[in-house]
Amino acid sequence: MRITTLIVREIEDQLLPVLQNCTSIKDLKRIHAHIIKYSMSQSNFLATKIIDICGGKGETDYAISIFKQVIQPNIFLYNAVIRAYTHNHLYYQAVTIYKQLLRHQQAENHISADRFTFPFILRASAGLLYLNLGKQIHGHLCKCWPTENNAIDNSLLEMYVKCGNLIDAHQVFDGMREKDSVSWNILISGYARSGRMKPAKDIFNSMPNKTIVSWTVLISGYTQFGEYLNALEAFRQMQLAGMKMDEISIVSILPACAQVGALELGKWIHVYVDKNRLLHRTCICNALIKMYADCGSINEAHQLFDNMCERDVISWSTMIGRLANHGRAQQAIGLFVEMERIQMKPNGVTFLGLLSACAHAGFLDEGLKYFDSMMKDYCINPSVEHYGCVVDLLGRSGHLSQALEFIDKMPIAPDAAVWGSLLSACRTHNNVEMAVTAMEHLLELEPDDPGNYVLLSNIYAAAGKWDGVLRMRKLMRSKRMKKMPGCSLIEVNNNVHEFIAGDDSNQLGDDICRVLELLASQLSRKTSLTIASDEGC
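User: That's the sequence. What structure does it adopt?
Assistant: Structure tokens below.
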């Protein structure tokens, strides 16, 4: 039965509000049945709307079944399917539909990709990290859509950035007549993700209208690559610029606070979060717990954990791991027991904290029990870090032979941390022979780490084997090794100051030395008075 165009439009207009109000797939299928009943299954308009709903609900199989029923799909329908697949991270399927579109383009009923096609297919190629595919799509884009479009240009820029091609990304960026904040942020993030923070900062400084996203990308880059003081300075500049923090910027700066011990700044952020009613956000609370614990304030971390509205597995794992680091093994184990009671499923990180707690407390039997439970009860395959914890557990308990046997039976290759744990245990228990065995493997894995040579030299010294000490020192000299100087950081008036052993470049160095001499003389005087008082008694 043929239906006139006027009647088709009328039926489509009647069904559109019904589709827009559809809230479930069950209702959608019911509406779809009516569409088939009214002989409207070939309506590109209705099929596009149905596919959009399916894409938003993750029902891509149903979406593609609708698409296949339409004999002559138009570009809007093609775009809807590509968009649905891309939204649900099914990038390969999106590319397959795009290829089908290209074949359709060469057929008699000519269909061309439009400005709505390219942003999503470029995102799909970026998701697959297929640079060559992205370049081919770039070529199609130049042929089909030579005029500039900001959304397309940004998608193209993002594709090159995600595929790690910053040269072509920069060329696209430089060729854009109108660059919005998204364009700038994509390019900055490309350099920041690759650890090239200097060019990232230069581009950031050139950006005319910086957004909170721009600042967050810069801070995250500094934090990710260990430039914590630069991260804190960027955060300070962001505050001076009057930028209001959002959830992502808060989570980005807190690890930097934790690494340098900027507790006062961390507390200020906590107050800010509380005032702006963001403490219900689990990810922010998790970051605050890490910050407090890593800055030494484990009680504040535990209090925050106890007051959380909703805890996820990261919350539990973080608290267990930090309690372990602070030597509170019983509390860490108690927390794990509570975690099991409420049926919160642990992950690999949870067991790392638990095994670490047992190792530091010398709970050998409990640690081995939890290691077995991880595999048997929770089907978690141990990583090299888990095996390293068991070696540490056995080594600290004095079971060096059992630790070496455990390493030999590991199903995965032991890394430097595993052999380093054994070497450290050998020093504690004065086992020179096994220390040499561990050192032989460390020389293969970390030939240029001076710390291992120093540790073995100390083991030789403790055993009175001075020829071994001399041999290690000669080896270090022949390799021109130097031990990294120690450093410490202190926070004063919300500014973090770094001190490195042997570094006399600090502008306040003379003043610091004078204060230290004064403190030393006062301490010496106090000690003398105490001794005299004891003798008088």
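The chain has a mean pLDDT of 86.
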